[in-house]
Every structure is written in structure tokens, then in C-alpha cells.
Design goal:
The structure is a homodimer. By secondary structure, chain A is an alpha/beta fold. Chain A is built from 11 helices and 15 strands. Helices cover about 35% and strands about 25% of the residues of chain A. In chain A, helix 1 links the parallel strand 3 and strand 4.
Chain lengths: ~325, ~325
Amino acid sequence: MAERMARGVFRTEAPVKIKSFAAVAGEKEGQGPLGECFDEVISDSHFGMDTWEQAESRFQLEAVSLALNKSGVHKEDIDVICAGDLLNQCIGSAYSMRELEVPFLGLYGACSTMAEGLLIASLLTDCGLAQNAAAVTSSHFSTAERQFRFPLSYGGQRTPTAQWTCTASGAAVISREGCISVVGGCIGRIADLKISDINNMGSAMAPAAADTIQRYLAATGTSPADYDFIVTGDLGRVGSPLLTDLLLKQGIDISAVHRDCGAMIFSPEQQDTNCGGSGCGCGASVLCGHFLPMLEKGELHDILFAATGALMSPMSLQQGESIPAISHLIHLRKD
Amino acid sequence: MAERMARGVFRTEAPVKIKSFAAVAGEKEGQGPLGECFDEVISDSHFGMDTWEQAESRFQLEAVSLALNKSGVHKEDIDVICAGDLLNQCIGSAYSMRELEVPFLGLYGACSTMAEGLLIASLLTDCGLAQNAAAVTSSHFSTAERQFRFPLSYGGQRTPTAQWTCTASGAAVISREGCISVVGGCIGRIADLKISDINNMGSAMAPAAADTIQRYLAATGTSPADYDFIVTGDLGRVGSPLLTDLLLKQGIDISAVHRDCGAMIFSPEQQDTNCGGSGCGCGASVLCGHFLPMLEKGELHDILFAATGALMSPMSLQQGESIPAISHLIHLRKD
């Protein structure tokens, strides 16, 4: 039984652990400042497949396979896998799950999906349904640009606030055993401050992250100083200062402990990525490649991972709508 | 704590109940054989909004609002709502959840979404996270046809195996109290027998339903005779006999108890709907408008609701892929 701390906020009661994890990234991500941390760097953007969409599925399969290998868990022992991605109808996940043949809960939380998947996988482990559960998500620069912005061959100019969708995937296995505990979490609410620029997702998502982080801190009676890091997924260089500002207005100063996967994964000046990385695979691969290993080694003890998703639809934006955003949070602790 | 019966199959242990529910449908659905069962029939396909997509969000809001009103639960008392729909980026749900301001888990299971949402909402109630949870989903003929098939104004011919996407929404509130128990459920796996005809979804989905129903019966040691009905979401007139055939080959005869929401919601001969209804809103509205009231009144005692989803993407079909399908199941009992 989980303990309900407040609306949408819980602490786990049964042991819920991250047993193993893996991150796979593309060539550009491999050349960035975190390049060394990924389990594999795949230089072929097609990953040997015919289409980028198939390649994205293969990134997921590779991440899941590496995570399973590390813990010696077979895919037949996974009770449920929570997966999602950015593609229409979440086909990155549907086709990877077809190969795995594992009971599958499909999620759509845009770039918040890794946190949403970890939340659900953890709660299903807590409630007894799963002995082993898993969460995986992915993004691919070429599939996302084509779907959300311009065909790559068009060579469109990128605006200063634009972010670069990461080609990457992260996967984690949740179980009763492991050395990193899932302590609790917070389910996000939609925040929408009427941003409608598809190239300024950081600004659209910052209010959602602020709402979720504030709710978790309030419900648990903790403050930023209680955590080594409060990690967001892909707010980038514009969204990150907005988040700290929004929380500061509520008397919460996260500036010393805030880290953003999108701001960390590239060197914007050298890599021409403007405001940084984005995409489901950005937060997932940096969590599983960088932060979870630091927790495992005892270099970190307590982190909050609050991935943010811009639930933007090219069509609804053409219809005059703004971008609804959401952020789900998970609290991880080294035992 | 839920009891794990087999991989992806569980029985609840704590009381998990459907407290209230509601169904809202469009004009054509209201003119069908089940027209009397819906809480509201909305004759304006725009539901007073500027776009059909906004109308679909309003269908969801209306269904949730009616379900909450029936049980006297305020939206502020809902700990989490599980929602999804067929639209790219699930915008039907994102924009309705923006209005509700409730902690929100976004799902993508295509037409299986109502069962997926009920599963997750039930397990989060079982595990203690939620005192009140909700599940909602929707579909809209005009948004779905535009996205998946042809612009309506094109006036394309429909094939004999085509189904008619329902304009409808269903919502249910899950809690510790109520007169219908969520007894257990089964999380689906992807099934893909290489159907690639976007106008023959019933055939694509039947193997997924067969797999899920077989797994639940085997894990619980029950047989079709133990249930008043085994209800599928939208297999329609082509998919339904395929399901009974597939199960019969495994020695399971559901022919006496099988009902399909898609085959029930329209009179195909009078309403020109070929193989019947489809869409997330089809199964959800027939469950919440027809089957749950029968359970509530004691006219039924045990049913399985196995909604099926064709996770089809127009793009991946153009790329030569087939349609992956999934079916999630929930077991409901009158107390």
C-alpha cells in the first residue's frame, strides 16, 4: 500500500526499487558533454532499419534489452512495461512492444513520459501486480522534426528558443530489489499559460514543473535543501530560469540544486542546438545514463526527477490553441 | 495489495468499486438501438464549439461532470484521472484535463483506452494512492475520419469491412464505495497478425482480444459460463466472429456470452454503418450507458469488459507496416 500524502502525491510503503537501467543515444548526443555516460552510442540514425520510425523502436528495444541484461531479468519475467513516445499513435512504443511480447500499458505524456512510466511501474510494483516492471521511452530527432516542425530536407531556420529533439532512449527495471529506492512521486496537472510557439516549449512547460515540484515539497514537508538535485527533463536554457523564477515567487529557491537534462546533454555553442535538448529520450537517457549511475555509486543520495511534457499538437496550434503542459515527478533515493 | 494471478493478470484485494458513471453520445448514436441508454445525446456535432476537436474535449468534460454529479464527488476530490483518446497527441484529453485541473495520467491505447484507464485507476485505488479516481475516454466521427482516413468533404466510399467511429464519451469514478466491484483485470500484449487495411480494424484486433480473454480465464481458472457477458469494445461484425473462432480453436466457447459494443451501438442496415461502431467512445459509452446500469440494477452479476485497440498510424501503414493491436480486460461484479 502506498501512502497518500496529498492529492496525486504518494510515498511508497512496500520496497520499490530500480533494479537496473540503461541508456542508448545517437551520434550527436554521444558527442555532447554527457557522451561517455551512455551504454551505447549509435552513429547510424537509421540504426540499420528502413525508416527513422523503425529506428526509434529499435532504440527502445536496445535500451530495454541492455537494462534486462544488467539485472539478469528475462523479458518473460517482466509483468508489465509502461512505454510511450512522441510519435502519432505512439508507434515507437507499439512496434517495440510487439517484439517484446510483454503486457504493455501505453502512455502519452510527451516528454514527461519517463516519469509517468516510472510512477505507474512503481505503483504497480507497490500494489503487488508486478514482481518486475519496466519503463521505457524514446525520441528521435528526425521523426520528431518531421512530425512537429518541418521536413528535414526543407532546412528550416531554427529560432533562438528552439530545442533539439534528442535521438535517445532510456529504460529502467523496477522490482522489490535494487540499490535505488523509489520513495514517492507526484502526478502532474495540466498547466497552460497560453504559450503557442512550438519552438518555445521550455516556456510552456516551466509552469507545469513548478506546480508539480511545489506540490511534492508541500505534501512531504521537504525543501530543496533536502535533495542533492531537483532534475527536470527538457526545459532547456529558456525554460530553466523561468522555473526557478516561478518557484522563487512562491518562496522556494531551487537554484542551487536544479539541473535540467535538456540543458546538460549538448554544448549549445559547439553543437548548434540553441536552447538545448528535448524529447522523451532526453530526460530518459540522462536519468538512466547519468543520474541513476551517480545514485548507484553513492555519489548522490536523494534526487527528484520531474520530467515535463508539452502536449502540443501541430493541428491544435493551427486551430489557434495554446500548448498544454504537464510534469510528473518521482523521488529516488540511494539506500 | 492486489493479488498477482499470472503475468499481467491480477485480482484486487482492497475494495475497489465503480461509484458512478455516465455516457454522452452524438446524434447518430442516439438514433441507434441503444439510444435510450445514454445520459445525454448531443445533436450538434460541434457541441457549441469552433472545432470538432474542441467538441470532443467537451464530450469528455460532460461525461466526467455527469459522473461526478451522480456520486456527489467534486472534481477537487479526484486524486487522479486516467484519460486518453484517438487524436494525435491525445488532445481530446489534454484540453479537457486543462479545464478539470485534476492530476492526470495520459494514456494511449486507442480503442482499448477505457479498459486501460479503468485498470490503472482501479490499481491506484487498490494501492492507496487514490481515494477517488476516474477514467474517461472519447472519440468523434469527424475528428477520427479526418485524421485516419479521408477529409469528410471528400465523400469517400466506405468498404464493407469499415466501421463508423462513434461520437461519444464514457466516464467512471472509482472509489472504495459503490455497488459494482472491480474484481480483477488483465493487461494486454501486442498482437499483430499482419493486417494492414485501415478499414478492417476488427480483424486486426480480434487476436489481441482472444489473447487477453484466454489469459484471464486461464489465470483465474474460470470459463465463459462463469460470466453473464464477455464484452468487447469495437470488433464489429467482422471481428466478432473471428474472436469466437480464435478462442474456439483453444477450446474456449464464448459464443453464448459474447457481446460487442461496436456491433450493438448501430443498426447497420438502417444507419449505413457497415460493420458497426468503433472508437474509444464506442466501448466507453456502451459500458457506461448500457452494461454498468444493468450491473447496478442487478440484471447482470459478472461481466468481463475487454476493450480492443488498433494502434494504427496512417504514416506507418504508408511505410508498409501492419496494425499492432492490444486488448485490456477488466472484470466487474455486482456486489
